[in-house]
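Dear colleagues,

For the upcoming journal club I promised to circulate an example of a predicted protein-ligand complex. I picked one with zinc ion because it came up in last month's discussion. The inputs are reproduced below in full, followed by the predicted structure.
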Amino acid sequence: MDATGRLFPNYKHVDDCALLARRAFELIRDIYPICRSITGDGVRETLARVAHLIPLDISEVPSGTPVLDWEIPREWNIRDAYVADSTGRRIIDFRVHNLHVLNYSTPIRVKLPLAELRAHLYTLPHQPDRIPYRTSYWREHWGFCLTHRQLETLPDGEYEVVIDAELKPGRLTYAERLVRGESSEEFLISTHVCHPSLANDNCSGIALAALLAEQLGRGKPRLSYRFLFAPGTIGSIAWLARNRDRLRRLRGGLVVGLLGDPGPLTFKRSRRGNSEVDRIAAQVVRELDPAARLLDFSPYGYDERQFCSPGFDLPVGRLTRSANDMYPEYHTSADNLELIRADALAQSMFALLRIVERVDTNRRYRNLSPFGEPRLGKRGLFRATGGADPGEFEHALLWILNQSDGGRGIHDIAAGSGLPRAVVQQAANALVAAGLLEEVFLETPLANPEPSGPPETEVE
Ligand code: ZN
């Protein structure tokens, strides 16, 4: 943090994020072609490219490892896949677009008539020119995805089907980056890394999370920031299963993703609904985007479903633009590089910087003399002459004394009182010096602070 109390003094306006947005787009373009899944080399390759920007700690969890109510699946890797017609011409080709293969397809090499092949073909009749994104992680199955337009033109006859893939015991891969601050309290930024060639969902989230980590690594934050790059659902479940002891230090967090499309900034509240990140993120998106949307928690979406499951109930919200199925390109081949807008990336980046900066400076205090107002005059904090209206500073003293119960921080009190944050902070400093206030470093009552469960699994 610099002398002005800002964590990111170079980013005061959304335009200041133009260069970061360009760099985010470069990373999105770089990782977009990779065929990712919930396990396998696509995730490893993606993380290797992110590691060009920020150092990453990679974890690999063996197939079969129990994690909460789940189990790490076998690892999937694919080399090639196609459907060829009777002349041997590839008419559906994984090399042309990796969405053409049902993600996690079992290997197969077979000749089939069209009538039988149809049961393995997926299209979008209402968006006939787009290839759908489909997966079959938990049921052994194979298939291809294609445009409905193409399906309608397939002539009867025999087709050669090849999926040159492997599904065998291996590992699930995720990565973390911890940016250490003055305090061991942690703020979590989590993003999913399992989708193949889909630009907004979620190359955009991966890129912006990486750049935020880079910027935080250059500053001197008060809190510590943990970045998690993990496959959706099973990745965050694996991380939660292996980090239960760490959760009590978690002050809050954000799931980030789908941040490059032209939709408005959208914040989805945590299950708690009114935690620190809920208040601050709602404030920030409203300030930055008049069309901003605030959504209440629902158990559908991304990894907030796991972080906000009732046993954990962590104060983790989600920042997106057009959330999951709220845009027509969602989970189709139209979620490509053309959907990504530089101004959207810049605004999303700026929102992330602002939210983090505010959480980081949202110091929380406890009033040490909460029974009645303490006498401020005798401590030289309040003007001795009665009758005149108190000034901003005196108002700030009263506000902070009244609101400092360990939960509300400087930003909350500034927002509630209408007083400038700097004045509220100045008043807090004076009260600390007078022995009337103490800073509170962790106030994250967890639903299950000491959860019991299966012993942590052996991993390498
Ligand atoms: Zn998705």
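Two points we might discuss: The first helix runs from residue 18 to 31. Confidence is low (pLDDT under 50) at residues 443-460.

See you all on Thursday,
B. R.
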